Amino acid sequence: MIKDTPIPYDVIKKHIRLMKLDNVGKASIREIKRLVDYVEQETGQKYIRMEMGIPGLPPSDIGVKAEIEALKKGVASMYPDIDGIKPLKKEISRFVKQFADTDIDPRSCIPTVGSMQGSFAAFMTCSRMYKEKDTVLFIDPGFPVHKQQCRVLGIPFESFDVYNYRGEKLRDKLESMLANGNISAMLYSNPNNPAWICFTETELKIIGELADKYNVVVLEDLAYFAMDFRKDISEPGKPPFQATVAKYTDHYILLISSSKAFSYAGQRIGMMAISDKLFDAHAPNLKHYYGFDTFGRAMVFGTIYALSAGTTHSSQHALAAILKETNDGKYNFIEVVKEYGEKAKIMKKIFTDNGFKIVYNMDEDQPLADGFYFTISYPGFTGEELIERFIYYGISAISLTITGSERTEGLRACVSLVSRDQFPDLKYRVEKFNEHHPVS
Ligand SMILES: Cc1ncc(COP(=O)(O)O)c(C=O)c1O
Q1: What is the reported pLDDT for 1?
Q2: CA 269–ligand 1 middle distance (angstroms)
Q3: Are 62 and 322 in contact, with CB atoms under 8 Å apart?
Q4: How far is the CA of 208 from the centre of ligand 1 (A)?
Q5: Which domain-ending residue is among 327, 361, 389?
Q6: Atom 2 in ligand 1: which residue has the minimum CA distance?
């Protein structure tokens, strides 16, 4: 092992020993975070922290003001309606119309405690619609916590890495999984965490058509809504729009997070927008769990009621205010979050100039967008080996293997916590890495 590394070799070795980490590459995100914290404390040197997917921007000011106002008016003492306060339901419905060109009635637009609660509630309700359909399908790579949700719910799941099945190839693969008849719902994120692939219209059409054919609910996770910066969707009501499966099926739930788009992660509020047709759909097996068989009713008065009886009152006012300004064209949230894409462009170049490859790099025939995440690999290294070695170069990231990706050579890098004034350090460290590990 080369000892002339940007972060002192002996200090890192000492902390690895003290933390009893046998294999740093296999350590959890939290363990890596802890190790990096210790080394930063001792050396005073800051890491390029690319491991955690948390927003790196201040929260929307409109939201903060509206929330304080609502609290002063006393909303804290009152239970909000389980399916959300009226002004928020109206603005969610307007938002999906203005920015995704999708018509959903306000009654089918429901705030949730983060988009995480939306997916939890969706897994729970969808897998109870039909006895024989008890399994969730993940179009991977994906966000590991979704699988954790299925595990704690006792819901079986299947998955496949979409890397080798882009474009028309997706049809046969997806059909082979759905044809078994056991899938209740399928989930993917778009743009994708961790790969930042964005499904093309061809792929969304395939997903929509097969969802109809096999009576499967599409859970479209739009946690990074509008962040395919290759197209500017910032003008309300005018194309282009956020790409969505809603164009191709009416058997879907859109899960929209306010954590990244509005930097509102701490207040744990997200949106669940259920297609009106699914909201009114009858599924006899629901009666067994909820006492009624209509999907929307089961979701609201069965699942959401049982989980949290709604979403924090004040944060609903915050989101309603943010969405209203956005829908009225007075607040351009995309302009704010574009910073992620601009940083990604520079950071990707630093890596690719120094022998690294972008693992997921194309959307069919189009180069990938620059956004919140990107994926990298280095010749001759597995992802785990790279993570281990990166620690000595003052860089942290996570391995793609925990995301359901079959690209064992890859790492996910998140741009949000890396500040622009760290770019010279990043460049120096990546160059050093390349110098120490020449590519033949
Ligand atoms: C793909 C994906 N889905 C969902 C979430 C969770 O969003 P929320 O904070 O709204 O619960 C995240 C957060 O990182 C995510 O990356």
Answers
A1: 62
A2: 11
A3: yes
A4: 22
A5: 327
A6: 223
